């Protein structure tokens, strides 16, 4: 039995879709906060179980009979460490034999503030005694492409990444790696630094948007404080705006770059290019 947390989230949905191609639905457990959102999975024969990252007891019940667990990191930055500890403790109590965890690219050396909770979770996994693998995911291309519509409207793409190279890949690319690691044997003890085959700057992203759309888009680099203020002005919550600005600055320091091609090797195909991602969003 394979369980996936956050199964109705954007990454989780991709993973289950891929697993259903190779694993019988009866061997898949989708752990969700709101089972009503997972009705389509139930109809396909996936065992949908309710549990929240904040409720260790509920997770222990939800993991009954589960052999392998894909722990997709919580979306609640600032609460991740205690939430992930709840899941790891529940996995111990339920007798789970293997955990794959979606961490952050080069988490142990990353300049991004996001790395702290991921490292704390990695340490908790090491202390748990449960065999595990780390899927250290780089940035999702979608993180930046979500800003494409306003950039095309105003002709300016803003950020704080400077000339930092960003080796992004799509959620579908990272999901393919997660599906493989959680469904195959032989991945325990592995640390996978996962990123796109090619890297680009935000200036190059703006140029690609210009090329494909026929509209002139330029990249404007801001300092961290000004970028965070701009994001707040667009209506983003303060915490998220500060986090995104910090992550961009981390990218300027090489925090989102990796050229090992571990991801494409693991999934057996090239990762999605910037050109393809921009074409898709347009």
Automatic annotation (TrEMBL):
Q: Name one Pfam family in it.
A: NmrA
Report the superkingdom from the record. Bacteria
Q: What is the protein name given in its UniProt record? A: SDR family oxidoreductase
Which InterPro entries is this protein grouped with? Answer: NAD(P)-bd_dom_sf, NmrA-like, NmrA-type_oxidoreductase
UniProt source species: Silvania hatchlandensis
Q: NmrA-like domain: which residues?
A: 2-238
């Amino acid at each position: 039995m394979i369980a996936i947390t956050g199964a109705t989230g954007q990454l989780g949905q991709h993973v289950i879709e891929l697993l259903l191609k190779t694993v019988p639905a009866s061997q898949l457990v989708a752990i969700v906060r709101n089972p009503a959102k997972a009705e389509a999975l139930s109809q396909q024969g996936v065992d949908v179980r309710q549990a929240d990252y904040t409720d260790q007891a509920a997770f222990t019940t939800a993991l009954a009979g589960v052999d392998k667990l894909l722990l997709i990191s919580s979306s609640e930055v600032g609460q991740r460490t205690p939430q992930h500890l709840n899941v790891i403790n529940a996995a111990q109590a339920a007798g789970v034999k293997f955990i794959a965890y979606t961490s952050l690219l080069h988490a142990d050396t990353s300049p991004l503030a996001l790395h702290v909770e991921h490292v704390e979770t990695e340490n908790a996994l090491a202390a748990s005694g449960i065999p595990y693998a780390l899927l250290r995911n780089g940035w999702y291309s979608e993180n930046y492409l979500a800003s494409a519509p306003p950039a095309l409207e105003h002709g300016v793409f803003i950020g704080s990444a400077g000339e930092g190279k960003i080796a992004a890949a799509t959620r579908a690319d990272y999901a393919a790696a997660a599906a493989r690691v959680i469904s195959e044997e032989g991945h325990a003890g592995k640390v996978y630094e996962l990123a796109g085959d090619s890297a680009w700057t935000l200036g190059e992203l703006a140029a690609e948007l210009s090329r494909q759309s026929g509209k002139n888009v330029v990249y404007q680099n801001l300092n961290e404080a000004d970028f965070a203020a701009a994001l707040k002005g667009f209506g983003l919550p303060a915490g998220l705006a500060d986090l995104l600005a910090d992550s961009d600055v981390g990218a300027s320091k090489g925090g989102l770059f990796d050229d090992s091609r571990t991801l494409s090797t693991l999934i057996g195909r090239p990762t999605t290019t910037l050109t393809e991602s921009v074409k898709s969003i347009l």
